[in-house]
Amino acid sequence: MDVVGRRRELRELAGAWERAAEGSPQLVVLWGRRRVGKTFLLTHFAEGKRAVYFTATRQDSEDRQLRRFVERVREQLGEDVRDLVPESFADWEAALRFTVRLADREPLLLVIDEAPRLTSGRSDFADVVSAVWENRVRDQRLMLVLSGSAVAAMEEMLGPHGGLHRRASVERRMDPFSLAEARAFQPDLAPADFIEAYAACGGYPLHLGRWSAERGVAENLTELAFTPGALLLRDAPDILSEDLDWRGGYERVLTAMAGGARRRSRIAGRAQQRIDYTLDRLRRAGYVRVVRAIGDRGSPDPMYEIADDYLAYWFAVLRDDADLVEGGQGEAVRRRNAGRWQTHVGKVFEAAARDHARRMVAAGELPPDAVVGRWWRDETAEIDVLALRGQEPVLIGESRWQAKPLTERDLAELRRKATYLPSGDGTAYAFWSRGEASEALRGHPDVRVFGPADVLEEPS
Asked: For 177-209, what is the HEC assignment?
């Protein structure tokens, strides 16, 4: 099975392998939360190469991990090394030093997946790798790949105080696929149906691959989210547990945000805890993003939102009723939470509209120096899509995940919001909507209307 997307990652891995084969050892660090496709990518890349692929396990002793590592070396390198490999190693430094010697003459790819699990009370695995790399690696034909799903732990290894700081020749974080990238997993779905599929599954290949093009949205949601043991129902806690624990109140903060709290004070109020450390760690790990209004006249206070669409769906729609779903009442829960579901899809569609506007800038449909974002002023007004050239608006847009037609009344409301911005010559207005636009609205020369198909395609 071919790898979908990830061309940049494959290109970087291939380049590192070529350099390693020529005698320039390569240390590669690849990380990202569970389900983004790291293991699939690396196992695909290892095919046909002299390689050892080892996955660390949770809560195993160091001795047990080392014995498993020996087994993988024997299994995957076979007779060439069978007589050289000891029963076990005293520690990970000895294991890595042995592996370095195996690359003296022939290229060797060593992948250590879930590397943070190898840090024990006795040693920090990143420090061990750093010591071996500095003192034992010279011109061996070795490519060592360290991978992990604990995003915060991996980035700490690479940070200023981490053992791998400035050691790696390639550092690449893998995030879930964007909406446009994920289209390749479900090319046969109608655009509106695909946006709903993405809103539930996020950019995770496994989730998207389980979505059936033969079934409707409601049937897919019932199968994947509202059935006891369903994939989308149980996967979010597994993803979060790799990186976070209950002690920091992370779930309470994410639940508050999913419920509509976007300002720091409101998040803290709903979570009923101090959130400075918690929010900062969620941001650094990529679970939360900070959003600021663009332009001088916007609110100075940032907003916070869940950055992962699947996790946002789980917290907004599934989390509070997971026990009811597991108890067999999934269909009733799905119907009861239909409003939350549509609100969530609307947020995903709004983000897609901004991405589409950014692609319009790149394609030359908007001025090349225009920046795209969102704008708000306290509780007075909020604009979903704003393109500014300097401080002058060139595009003011609204996202509407609604089936009913857009009318001139919608345009009048958007023009009202525009009065809070500096006036500009030739400002265009845009709507992104699931529904059609009335003929009268389309008759305005300064108005453009886009649908689900537009946000999935490159601008002409």
From this structure: CCHHHHHHHCCCCCHHHHHHHHHHHCCCHHHHH
Closest by Cα among 40, 1, 25 to 55? 40
Q: Distance (Å, rounded) from C-alpha 452 to C-alpha 386?
A: 19
| Domain 7-173 class, CATH top level | alpha beta
Residues of the chain by 3-state class (helix, strand, coil), percent to 5? 50, 15, 35
Domain 179-346 bears CATH identifier 1.10.10: yes
| pLDDT < 70 stretches in the chain | 1, 121, 458-460
Give the model's pLDDT for residue 459. 58
The pLDDT score that the predictor gives to residue 457 is 84
pTM (global) more than 0.90: yes
CATH 3.40.1350 correct for 352-455: yes
* 265 burial level (CB within 10 Å; 0-12, 13-18, 19+): exposed
pLDDT digits (tens, 9 = 90+) for 310-319: 999 999 999 9
Task: For CA atoms 400, 404, 408, 412, give the dihedral sign.
Answer: negative
51-55, strands of its sheet edge to edge: 51-55, 108-113, 142-148, 26-31, 170-173
Could you give the CA distance from residue 217 to residue 190 in angstroms, rounded to a whole number? 11
Question: What pLDDT, on a 0 to 100 scale, did the predictor assign at position 152?
Answer: 87
